[in-house]
Amino acid sequence: MTDNIHKQAAARGLRPAWLIACGAALALAGAGAAAQNGTVWGSYETPFAASSPWNSRPVNPTFGEFVIPKSDYYPSIAEGAWSTGVFPAGSGDAPVTVVGLPNSKGVWDPDAGVYRTVDIPRWPEGVIPASAADGHADIVDPLAGIVHSFYKLRQSEGQWMAAQYAWTRLDGRGWGDPAHYFQGARAAAVPTSGGLMRKHEIDDGRPLYRHALAMSLTYNALSANPTYVFPATSADRDAASTNTGQIPEGALVMLPPEFDVATIRTPAVRKVAETLKTYGAYVVDRNRGTPYVIYVENGSGFNLHRGGWNAVAASDLDRIRQGLRQVVAVDGWVDGDDRPIEPERNLNLLSMRGPWSRQSGTVSGNFETWAQALVFAPAAASTVMVNSSGRSLHPVAWAIPAAGQAYRLRAIATGGARLRLQLRDKASGATLFDSKELNNDEVADFVWPGGAVTPVVTAIAGAGGASTVRGELLRTGE
Predict the structure, then answer these.
(1) Which domain of life is it from (predicted)?
(2) How high does pLDDT run on average in the chain?
């Protein structure tokens, strides 16, 4: 095939840079943008951007017919063992190193694809993971602009340990993208703070929560094919073999406009019902035996069954179960500032995760997840590293590159580093596309070739000082 390949300086400016510090890379995000309504987006109390799916609402949604079935228990809106806490980190908090659970290889980092220890620069006092097996906890660091999300977090003899770690930008989408596909501890790859009913919202006097909620479904409601849809980038591992319902993770479920919220007799549930009519709830993971669970922040005091079983609240929750429907189409979206938006779906495909092999030079680069870049320490001579594993393109179902589609690769580099992408035929090894070496902000346009291909990414360090390199691979021509 013949590719129309060219290099040019991109007309648009660089996106905000990430400061790469020695030994760690921290995103220096802003403290959040204040909206006209006083909301500070990207903050501890109101995480993620106004345009995030969590903070946006659909216009004139169209609904599917599937009804969430009954199961072993009544539906639930609850904090507790399977929910999560959200803990703010401050400038005075000390760093903590989180290690893997006993007899493990380390903390699993699905973004990097490695087991490792995790150094958190600011760890607040009073972190209490949820008590059930999932052991969820999210730490929000406004200074770094990061939400740290943990799975099976616990402390033993003063040492913090966890099974899994992932992170997301506090001012970002709150969902994964094809390059940084796992951004939180829930199965849908979202942080446990996403969509959470927060303790400061419970009794704020508003008629509804001003964001979409986070919901869990059980096996008989969740879909086996597909197991997840946009904006989710993952699902429970055995979903394809165990689910028997029709709603995939990542789906938005809502109460249709005709649902009569006045029939809900419990005030706390009525506020949730109003939210489900306006924003809905995203399905983020699976539970055992409960038709749906809506997650509430631990420490909120929210309890529908205080003092014993509340039959009225249980009946209200089941009425909501009968009314909920999956959103299958919309006329549009409105963000948290009441502005019409188009949800961002053309997201970066290219990750700099390893494994990398050093072809020349003396100092290897390392993938820094917080920078989403390959980071090189200063060295007198340039280093060349190659990744031919195929893991630079994660197979997110709704973002797999399509043959015949036009794409643009852009290099984002510092310190004189360069980026190169080649696509090789899997069977013959023939090179189908070669971007050649791209300097910072140079681009290469091409059409995705047909057949099975293997991506080969080459990173070339700058000589003399420290350098970093990553890439942005987006669809074009639409």
Answers:
(1) Bacteria
(2) 93
